[in-house]
């Protein structure tokens, strides 16, 4: 197979293996919380699939590493060893190490490092074996050799199926010269036979140049029904750099408390190259395309000949069908991009476990609405804000057990992640039953930094909004979890970049609720078309509060040339779009145009435009990919007359206004 063809299959293998690692991690966490023994079989099957695939697709280092974990799992599965916290912790670190291996594989970097070698030694020590000798380790990291040792142990259930072991050995004979030695001493009494155990085995010495992938390929269709070990005897070509000196078994693999957070941040910033789609959605798409073809054929009959009243009625009917099918096709295609938010939520049980253990807190995580669907693009970008919110909830919100008892609460705090659809948006909430926001501490810090002149008269909402200021933190000591004052600022900025908002409800002593409201998709938005001179701009509907007609004397000029107008007992700044974007327009007086009140970055401003044309759905096209990044513009769309309209970035305009005010 060519390198390009192998690379294609490697990418599919990596994506499927990462899903397998997610399964291993969630099952290990369930075991840690008292889950049943069937979870061990689930973990073993996932590890076994990764091991077999790694050997087949050219990752022998990963295969041999996973084999160590699989051997430990096999002892647990067979009842030779009891599962305990130490084994679960070691296997969770193994999952983290495998994720890093896959990341290095995608980057074209060597898979083995000191962390992997240290973990391999810990796994070996857990099973009562010392670290493998350097020669044995070198033999593992090869893809081709002129002699191999294959240890093949089928499950009893496979032996009952007939001559499968004999057929497999015959297939191996087609690769090289064989010497087969049976392990007859492994056969137990008949009453002790277990169809899921390995009771009989063969050691096969294979001579002749061969590739590891070819040998593993013989067994790939029975990999779940046997145990298999492949070891090179005489090396022809090494594919890995010499193995580094083994790390001490006690060497730390990573900051365990941050393993889940690092994974969530890494996955949040990485864009997957594929998406899984149910066959029902594909069938629906094919049917709609068929309907469109039929409608097009019907409309083609009107190309020639006169159109009388009857034919005009048929034409109108055909156009109505075309519009309906196009709308249904659009909805169907958008549905393919919609994925459940469970893929984001499932990152957090591990992170919550690690951080709570590090801080000495007891935390119960509840997930609600995991099957709520949203656009894949939004899904990929929501992870980072949620990481900050979850970390803050555990570190700042939830109290230590003794403080909870003193305030009449149970030792265990509850952290809830929920998702639901509300109108055309998705609402994600991160709530806890902790101490809530400390109003006095926030006001004191804001006064110290000069953010406010006085805290008197400020509403709870206004005080809570202060924590989103850049660099704001009430933490007395900076730790690796908090205190730098960048978390909440990042949350608001990232959510705003997605066209969403974040709000806080907090009751001191009872807990806090952080609510993120996001559009379901970034590919199509609902907006109002605004006219500014000869130009057309799309203002996202989700950002619009109200549009008002003002009198000529309703605007006041302030120092520095800024303008303010009164709206519902507050003064809002005016942003004239023709000034920001350099448009030619004859409408300059406030009473001649229209003021559109919009909200972004937690603040409201008024956009002064010539007028509003109407509401429409806009298919978002990237301006940065086709031209360049323009401040205050998030994208472009094509109108019905073929002209281009720019989509206003409300959050960007609010930031621009803030910088002007500061200047």
Helix content: 40-55%
Q: Give the distance, in angstroms, between the N- and C-terminal Cα atoms.
A: 62 Å
Which CATH class of the largest domain? Alpha Beta
Low-confidence stretches: 130-141, 236-258, 264-271
Average pLDDT: 78
Question: What's the architecture of the largest domain, going by CATH?
Answer: 2-Layer Sandwich
Radius of gyration: 32 Å
Order of strands in the sheet with most strands: 14-18-19-17-16-15
Number of strands: 22
CATH homologous superfamily designation of the largest domain: Histidine kinase-like ATPase, C-terminal domain
Bulk shape: globular
Instruction: Report the CATH topology name of the largest domain.
Output: Heat Shock Protein 90
Strand content: 15-25%
Number of domains: 4
User: Which class of secondary structure composition applies to the elements?
Assistant: alpha+beta
Which oligomeric form is depicted?
A: single chain
Explain what you see.
With 663 residues, the protein is an alpha+beta fold. It folds into 4 domains: 1-132, HPT domain (Four Helix Bundle (Hemerythrin (Met), subunit A), Up-down Bundle); 134-239, ACT domain (Alpha-Beta Plaits, 2-Layer Sandwich); 255-521, Histidine kinase-like ATPase, C-terminal domain (Heat Shock Protein 90, 2-Layer Sandwich); 524-662, Beta Barrel (OB fold (Dihydrolipoamide Acetyltransferase, E2P)), CATH 2.40.50. It is 43% helix and 24% strand. The protein has 22 helices and 22 strands. The strands form 5 sheets. It has a 6-stranded mixed sheet. Helix 1 (3-32) runs antiparallel to helix 4 (85-107), helix 4 (85-107) packs antiparallel against helix 5 (114-126) and helix 15 (376-397) packs antiparallel against helix 19. The longest helix is centred in the N-terminal third of the chain and has 30 residues, at 3-32. The relative contact order is 0.06.
